[in-house]
Amino acid sequence: MAASRVCGAGQRLLAVKRTCRPPVRCLNLHEYNSKRLMEEHGICVQRFDVAESPSQAKDAARKLKADMLVLKAQILAGGRGKGTFSSGLQGGVHLTKDVQVIEEVTKKMIGYNLVTKQTPKEGVKVKKVMVAEALDIARETYIALLMDRAFHGPVLVGSPQGGVDIETVAASNPHLIYKQPIDIFEGMTEEQALKMAQNLGFSGGVEQKAAKQIQLLYSLFLSVDATQVEVNPFGETSNGEVVCFDAKISFDDNAAFRQRAIFDLAAESEESDPVEAKAAQHDLKYIGMDGDIACFVNGAGLAMATCDIIQLHGGKPANFLDLGGGVQEGQVYQAFKLITGLAQVRAILVNIFGGIVNCAIVANGITKACRELDLHIPLVVRLEGTNVEEARKILDESGLPILTAWNLDDAARKAVDSVSK
Ligand code: GDP
Ligand code: MN
């Protein structure tokens, strides 16, 4: 399963009632690759270059001949501005006039892990940085285009209060999140683009420029088979230009056959969601979601049913995970390590139906993982099928605080109860 997950804040901003089927599988590109595509489509981005070493970064900075520069660590997760590096450096986005500072700061970025709200606990290693001409931002807004199941098609989402705290805005001021479904046959009309530009607070003639950018973003969205194009900040400069300062584009896996160049580019630069890439290394089928109840299941159908039943009981799944049929104890351990490493997870629900899978192998993997990872969150386990008696014995005798459940409904209820306390 290729890189995927609900990427960026866009999906979270859509506060619409939805079933919790995993989203369309998609591939993400780094900011610099997304911006190259945007440039090709005539969208307004800053002049920039990419570097893989401090000296390259310094050269790139020199060549830009800009009054002000911005240095950005390139990882697939967002929230870099407020992130921390394993080198001790604070912030994955730095503004400076001095090319020497670009070199010095790059030294503390490349080769170190950057931890943000969206990365695993240990962070993601930075291999590249972007050096760009910094512009004076007068106002930061948010704009995204998403393919959304609830709207049966594309939806334009925007907010006049963009920037690093957009998710706080969505939580505390939901009326400042504007949504406009787009008719896939008619496309985006000029009126729709202009209305959104006005909702974002552009005025005095600048709204026309913003509307033009929004239309270009929609045409990019369609032509690259994106599932999401997110720009945050979608900013207004002090001289009235509208610029895409940050970009995140996700592409539909099903379109790989006609977007070969993009998918090859991603393969070359090893771009994939860090958590999903790790899961894939251990042969686990994993898709990250937004909730707090981690699911640990064998079989894709059962994994989806588990996600749905958690939702039915008022909870939110943190992931889709299919252990597969021939699961080994080592994989159970790795899967546990992966999901317990996610900051958002507050409970784990294990739902195993042992057909091919031997329940005792799963039970052994779970108890080993619980001890070694020093688990401190509720763990609800429902096991059924092959060798289940032996498995129950292993769990009972482990002395671990495991909540045993007798069926899927009971398990989901217990998991939801444990996080709502
Ligand atoms: P993120 O934290 O991963 O979303 O990274 P962004 O690229 O969005 O950068 C974070 C913040 O840095 C933005 O919200 C801006 O406030 C600031 N920033 C980024 N580029 C520039 C720039 O060219 N000029 C100025 N003044 N600020 C910038
Ligand atoms: Mn951003």
From TrEMBL:
Residue numbers binding substrate: 298, 355-357
Main location: mitochondrion
Positions that bind GTP: 46, 79-81, 135
Gene behind the chain: SUCLG2
Subunit structure: Heterodimer of an alpha and a beta subunit. The beta subunit determines specificity for GTP.
Keyword Nucleotide-binding part of the UniProt annotation: yes
Enzyme class: ligase
Protein's name according to its UniProt entry: Succinate--CoA ligase [GDP-forming] subunit beta, mitochondrial
One cellular component (GO) term of this entry: succinate-CoA ligase complex
Listed InterPro entries: ATP-grasp_succ-CoA_synth-type, ATP_grasp_subdomain_1, Succ-CoA_synthase_bsu_CS, SUCC_ACL_C, Succ_CoA_betaG_euk, Succ_CoA_ligase-like_bsu, Succinyl-CoA_synth-like
Domain ATP-grasp fold succinyl-CoA synthetase-type span(s) in chain numbering: 28-234
